[in-house]
Model the fold of this input.
Amino acid sequence: MSAQENGAQAPAGTEKGRRSDRILAPIPIRVIASDMSGVGFSEETTTVSFNKHGACISLTHALLPDDVILILNRKTDIEEEFRVVGALRHVFGERSEWGVEAINPESGIWGIEFTPPPEGTQPKALIECGACQTVIHSPMYSIEYDVLLVTGLISRHCDRCGETTRWRPSQKTDLPEMVTEVRKAAPPSTDRRKARRLRLVMRVRVRNSWGVTDVAQTRDVSKAGLCFLSLKLFTVGEEVHMILPFAANSVPVESKAKIIWSNLAEGSPARYYGVAYMK
Done:
């Protein structure tokens, strides 16, 4: 039986194959995000399922809908940004499953070349903006559709409101009066920042080859590196080792990085350090 017929046997390694929507497979991933209290975290976990446009992931931390998170595929070593669509289901204990949408579906994070679904098979739904009551008949990615079926709410951009709002299934049936949706397309990758910064305040342990060690606080993180605040003195150009996040009950994940800039924090003896991850 092929992986297309049995999602549980879908490959997730370095070899690329053509796969259709959707694949059920536990891919090891690292998620960096903020929880519902605004506290940053890093969690080693797995996917439940995935496709070109998103994934269902299992987490012990709770997320906020529409937040942007970072997901690293531990097999392909590709990290990309995803938008939180919403919670899918509670599994057990503190563990729940969440639907996330790929901000850059062409990134190849899963190491698989997906074939587009047959024309006309993409689900559509009448949904209504909870803020302005605009009604649209919109095609939906499977992750959005799953969240809508489970929770009755999804978050997405509303052109009339000019911001992200909560959407629910609409009871209206007067199709001629519906407003056609024109979702704002993401700018081409060449126009975007190479590494979008996420405001995450979390603890990180930093040490250099001279034995200088500090449990510092991040200001922001990105796919390429992070910025942290420290009272210790580090030198631009030196290599450091970091554990993110640094907490007594977390699994230590040490990353090698290089300090690429330093600035004195205004009104404080501490300094901001910008670091870039090293392969």
